[in-house]
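HUMAN: Spend a minute on the protein record below and explain its fold to me.
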Amino acid sequence: MVAASVTTFLCSLVVLVMGETSDNTADSGNLPAHQKVCDSRFLPNGGDTSLYVGGEATAQAYKPNAPIKTSVCDESSSSEYNVHKVAHWSFWRSDYKDSVPIFIKGNLLSCHSGDAAAAIGNEATLEVWQPRPNGTYSSIRPGIEEGDCRASVPITTTTKYYSDNDSNIATDDINRIGTVEFETFAPGSIGILNGLVPSSSRDYLPYKPGAIHMFLNVEGYHPFLRELSLSELNDWIPAKISKGRFKLSGGKSFSSNSDGIEILSVTPKSRPGYELAIEVEINLFLVGNDKEAHGTIGDIFCSHNLQRGRLNWIPLFFKEPISVCSAAYMDFFAL
């Protein structure tokens, strides 16, 4: 009698636990059993937002309608642009005569909250921009220096889908909705003027690491704004190879890995004519958005939409793209 009661109790407990597990799975968005659910590091830290901004990301130097290409920065015929200016301390930049080629592969992973990951269109592009190796951005004025360290990089969409019966599948493959590949040269460190100075002028201390900015705006997901810090990449390269080339010491540095970009690997490569070249693989985590439309670029970037991340204390002028939200300033400054 006692044994039967114990057996009945244990069976009831198992049923209860299985029921709770099932409910929790449903709350996760009814995702396939082996689909990776993005952890809290890659999700908006608050209510709904039309623009998913992470960490130190800023769009101040953004310029819309960059040409479609897979090379962001090309080596310039001007030796002035090719000098790589790198800050190893916030108050000093060093000059290197050689640039550093970088090849980047990005995996677009869905953190969709609905029943399934939303597909992205075949014509989707990832907008990428950065400072030149000398630490200056190309002009943000329309029709001037178009495509100079700016590109709309085509995305190769993933069309293979998996069922719950599939086994031995990497979780990233379940989440992957596309890949993007591009090459560039390492951006230089910018100063207090954020690199928005004429090429004949100079920026001033304090300096911060060069960064590669990325913006993605596709239906089904929050617009995505991130940047990849060169100082962080330096930590992935053996010291005897990097020789501290990108490392900023004595300055505040934030990890991309907590802000929607996950660095998977940084591999030094040999390339004729260059002392150092690197290949980088990253994951980009996209957060689902069930809204039908994002509106115009101005709707996405301007006013309250950028009040997010660790830059809340800085006036919006230093986060919003001047070319989109404050175009009148270009009448007074040679940007």
Notes: The two ends are 86 Å apart (CA to CA). Residues 17 and 213 are 45 Å apart (CA to CA). Residues 1-37 have pLDDT under 50 and may be disordered.
